[in-house]
Amino acid sequence: MREDLSRTNSSSGDESARRLAIATRRLTQVLGRVAGLRNVSALTVRHVARCVRGRFVVCAIPAGENELSIVATHGYPLDMVKMLRINSGSGVIGSVHASGTPMLVQDITTVPGLQRRPRYRTNSFMAVPISAGGEVLAVVCVADRLDDQPFTRDDLAALRALTAPVALALSRERARRDAEDFAQAAIMDPVSGLFNRRYFHERLEEELDRARRHNTTVALLMIDIDNFKGINDRYGHLAGDLVIRGVGDILKRSVRKFDLCTRFGGEEFAIVMPGSGPENSIPVAERIRQRIEAFRPTESELAELRVTASIGMALSRGASARELIAHADQALYEAKQSGKNRLVEWKPPDDDRRKPR
């Protein structure tokens, strides 16, 4: 009888191991077909809940210095906890993140510092870190076995096996996000929050090519902050950066979503407006000029600071990128020479409409 029981237990263990291997392989395959941190996390919690028979499963990821946020749930809506921030080292999830080691709790009331949550039926939890290269990328926590029994070491081993392929998927998503961040940083100006000059030239060429194919025009606005050196000399370079950021915000708020706002260099900005003629670009340019003139810093020490800008505008009309920039620059120069704080539209030299606005 004892031999028969041993054979039964061995057979049951083999079957459990076989099912776990199949589940892990299936999760690995599916993770290879999804992209995005939240999609990977959502798939993970669903798979974990099914395989380890957990009523509640959450996946939390680092969200800033020494904090985690829950990005996927099973058993209750994500909306209930998505704004929650968990301190590293606090509670089950925070403790596992800080230590980088799994945790199996059969009765939470016996563990100092941990409290039972009323939504759970049992006092048993388990949580594992998902790590790569010594860094904890996420924590998966499971509560309430479906049979209301405490989780066992076998359950914890199964959870660790399931989350092994998740580490690869999260590492892949981290690398993808880092690559996107690096690519974004390469085209952004850190002070103004606008695109930089390099990206401006790339996009201007693209928009001019598109305009030629579709027989449309591209408007280019060149905007220069008046007397910017005086602002730096009187108030300091931190105030100068504040003005640059403020003007950048004004530009973004004043144009269409597909218009391109860039910091051309120093205190000069450029806006590319695809498909725009004078009837569209002139009102936008004038609105920008007025909003810059009305700009007031919130810092009390800058209460007397006043900012204005001069704007030169040109339409492509078949011009090359170099010619269009030269035309807008010439109009900007005329705006400066004729008194500043004004808009000048570039016209051919024999056009009598060529005058400041």
Please give the structural blueprint:
Layout lengths: L1 H30 L5 H15 L2 E9 L4 E8 L10 E3 L3 H9 L3 E3 L19 E8 L2 E11 L7 H35 L9 H18 L3 E8 L2 H8 L1 H18 L5 E6 L2 E7 L3 H16 L15 E7 L5 H17 L5 E3 L12
Produce a short descriptive summary:
With 357 residues, the protein is an alpha+beta fold.
Can you walk through the features of this model?
- This protein is α+β, with helices and mostly antiparallel strands and 357 residues long.
- It has nine helices and eleven strands.
- Strands 3-2-1-6-5-4 form a six-stranded antiparallel β-sheet, with helices on both faces. Strands 8-9-7-10-11 form a five-stranded mixed β-sheet, with helices on both faces.
- Helix 9 (321-337) links the parallel strand 10 (309-315) and strand 11.
- Helix 1 packs antiparallel against helix 2, helix 1 packs parallel to helix 4 (153-187) and helix 2 (37-51) runs antiparallel to helix 4 (153-187).
- The termini are far apart.
- Mean pLDDT is 89; it is low at 1-8.
Question: Which labels suit this protein?
Answer:
elongated, alpha+beta, 9 helices, six-stranded antiparallel β-sheet, 357 residues, 20% strand, 46% helix, 11 strands, five-stranded mixed β-sheet
